[in-house]
Amino acid sequence: MSAKNVMKADDIRRTLTRIAHEIIERNKVLDDIILVGIHTRGVPLARRLGDIIERNEKVHPPVGALDFTRYRDDLNGGKSCPVVRATDIPHDINGRIVVLVDDVLHTGRSIRAAMDALIDIGRPCSIQFAVLIDRGHREMPIRADYVGKNLPSARHEDIRVRLVETDGSDEVAITSA
Question: Up-side HSE of residue 20: CA atoms within 13 Å toward CB?
Answer without folding.
Answer: 22
